[in-house]
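Our preliminary data section would be incomplete without showing what the modeling component actually yields. Below, a chain of 509 amino acids is followed by its predicted structure, encoded as tokens that our downstream tools consume directly.
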Amino acid sequence: MSSWMQRQISSHQIAATAVLSGLAVAGTIFGAQAIRRKVAVGNLKSSIPSVDEKHHAEKLTQFGTASPSTFPPSKEDDRAAALARRAQQGDYDEALVNEQLTRTSSFLTPSRLSTLRSSFVIVVGLGGVGSHCTAALARSGVSKIRLIDFDQVTLSSLNRHAVATLADVGTPKVQCMRKRLEAVVPWVGWECFNEVWRQEQAERLLQPWDGGAGRKVDYVVDAIDNIDSKVALLKYCHAHGIKVVSSMGAGCKSDPSKICVGDISTTIEDPLSKSTRRRLRALGIAEGIPAVFSTEKPGPGKAQLLPLPEEEFQKGGVDELGVLPDFRVRILPVLGTMPALFGHAIANFVMLKITGYPHEVGGGKGREKMYDGILGALQGLEERLARTETGNAVGLKLPITKDDVGYLVEEVYRGKSVVSGLPTRLALVRWRAPEGGYGPDQRCEGQKWSRMGGGLRELVCMTKEEAAVHEKEILRGGRRPEEIYDDGVIQLVDRRMAEELAFERYRSR
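Predicted structure:
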């Protein structure tokens, strides 16, 4: 017995010694790493020269980028800028301009080219799409261009930027665009805003040319890849009657033949357009905004949005990795040719629209009559159910509008039945029987409201035939959906309702 106890004590001592040894080794390793980091940081700091007459320092902009004055222009840039100043003041031979634009004039006709040359276009976002769009507009004859972007040129953006060179890395994109294009079209006037587009600054950023004293904007180009800024810009333009065209996502796309120009309500196969369209619908904007998008489908072997490493999520504070709050932090794979094609498609659309050149662009889905029919059928269903309890459902009102119907059918349920996936003869119906019964809510004297406390999340999309069975078995028969439908349908409805709950905060009140 004594021997056994001694062996147990000995084994525990060995284990404790091993643990302590491990902790000691780990402490030594981490300590050594900390020392190395400290030495590396010290070496880096010591390599930075002191601020003096030879080495001066300048403050970064509010977006953490270098100010334009940090990068002195080259002699060639100085010459181009001097020529541009003279040209913009009228000291430039008009015959040279006409010769440079002769092919455009032959295509559009001289009168249309004159219209284009007097136009004013604002481009918001100067990445791959925006830079190519801007370059095409300037080269084609647009003579007043305002550029809005907070960002600077990086090495990784050179695979898709229209005009940036290695010498431009670190410089603001708006200044890079102006500098490079002044050497090509010196007569074009530029207004550069090195800042983020924000709704509270919309009136100033979209004001007429020359500080509000000149021509009103003819077209706004939305080339923003941040969803909040994008939706805010489109909403502002739509509300104020400003013509705007929006670029959807060029990332992860590779087929030029799938690029389309059409109403935003028709966009498909693109996460950016889906989120933009749904957010706009939640704000009451279903269509009426032209967009450039790709219908290319994702598939095996094709590029996908690159996820953040798991260790970044474990650290927490993922939002801090973005350039600015609410801006994407994941890497978007981009084939450099596709943003260029998107940008040229937008520039082409804008030029044809401004000059009135004959062209066709796909319109909205035109399903207003269908939404009216679905709303009428839902009204009839709610009245039938209410009569089973009160006997009188005359004047019953629904807390649902035709716009809500369109939003539910198109965005929440993707235009398909949750049961069969069929896209025809659609209807909206309650998913579950309400616990409080179907009697109308009469809290407001003289009004009868259908009880729909869960709002839009109480409704699902089915075919008319499926809705009739659903009404009989569940809404009248007292059965639960789980007793009728398989797990796939139940899970699909749960996912759609969870999505709507997440998007509910964006709906206009």
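The first strand starts at residue 120 and ends at 124. The longest helix spans residues 2-47. Preliminary results of this kind motivate Aim 1 of the renewal.
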